[in-house]
Task: inverse folding
């Protein structure tokens, strides 16, 4: 009976996260909310549910499964979005700029956060999300740096919100700045937060602008893998002399899955093994739903009472970094 009860709790929790993800999708369909994105809408619903109804303790195992296991599965599947061949063939010049963008975003955010006495973990995650690829980067590094679920959810919510704001501002600036479509697309891809934000900003510039923007963004996604391994070795070194099991850093095995699917997507699918664009789009849709359900699990751990105290100063640090990054990227394209 206990085993049956455990399975019900597990499956019930997983189903609940997908239910809230579905409600997030319905909210996303409403006018105005499509700019925010399904993931951010679902996180907002999860946070509000927690404040009004409390944490659903009866199904905690399933919610924890979504926020941890499903999160890793989503990151592995996300590897299919990275075309290594395209990055290495056409994007090496952009890749060098991407390295500088990532180093600046993380370094400056951490530096400013220290001076603002901001929450160090949220600031670190926001710096990584700003420099690399938004929520996906935050989700990938969170288990490596041992971020609390609440801090991860807060960081994802902030990056989704601010990335949307910046993408909209970019579309307005496009009509003012003396940039041709190609350089505008490059600027968007180098400096904006998530792939969705890059698409939102670059699409008005036409197909060429969107293509170069996505190429620049793919370079930043490509650099997520070495960044994760660097963070892993840094954390491992810090905890080398600590005997506590809680302090030990597990090897991020899910990154090997990310790399494997990146290789398959770049050199096998569509080459040796024919895979249609329709099937790839279905996989990307599934990935988005799994990642959204995982973020719901994280969002259910957020307490609004702590949100203002924890999030305001990291938000200020991340916003300042994003503005400076946009200015610097404008002059290096």
Result:
């Amino acid at each position: 009976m206990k085993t049956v009860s455990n399975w019900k709790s597990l499956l019930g929790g997983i189903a609940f996260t997908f239910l809230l993800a579905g409600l997030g999708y319905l909210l996303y369909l409403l006018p105005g909310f499509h700019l925010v994105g399904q993931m951010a809408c679902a996180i907002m619903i999860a946070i509000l549910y927690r404040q009004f109804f409390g944490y659903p303790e009866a199904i905690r195992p399933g919610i924890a499964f979504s926020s941890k296991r499903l999160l890793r599965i989503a990151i592995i599947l996300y590897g299919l979005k990275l075309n290594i061949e395209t990055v290495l063939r056409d994007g090496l010049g952009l890749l060098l700029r991407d390295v500088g963008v990532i180093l600046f975003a993380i370094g400056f955010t951490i530096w400013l956060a220290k001076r603002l006495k901001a929450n160090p973990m949220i600031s670190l995650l926001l710096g990584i999300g700003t420099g690399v690829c938004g929520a996906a980067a935050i989700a990938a590094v969170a288990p490596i740096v041992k971020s609390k679920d609440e801090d991860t959810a807060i960081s994802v919510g902030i990056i989704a919100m601010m990335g949307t704001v910046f993408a909209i501002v970019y579309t307005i600036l496009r009509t003012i700045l003396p940039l041709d479509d190609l350089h505008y697309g490059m600027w968007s891809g180098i400096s904006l937060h998530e792939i969705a934000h890059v698409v939102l900003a670059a699409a008005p510039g036409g197909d060429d602008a969107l293509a170069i923007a996505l190429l620049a963004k793919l370079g930043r996604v490509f650099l997520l893998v070495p960044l994760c391994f660097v963070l892993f070795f840094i954390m491992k070194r810090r905890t080398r002399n600590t005997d506590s099991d809680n302090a030990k850093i597990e090897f991020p095995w899910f990154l090997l899955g990310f790399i494997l699917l990146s290789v398959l997507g770049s050199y096998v699918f569509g080459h040796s093994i024919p895979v249609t664009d329709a099937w790839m789009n279905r996989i990307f849709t599934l990935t988005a739903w799994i990642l959204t359900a995982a973020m719901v699990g994280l969002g259910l751990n957020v307490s609004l009472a702590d949100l203002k105290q924890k999030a305001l100063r990291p938000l200020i640090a991340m916003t300042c970094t994003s503005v400076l990054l946009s200015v610097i990227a404008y002059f290096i394209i």
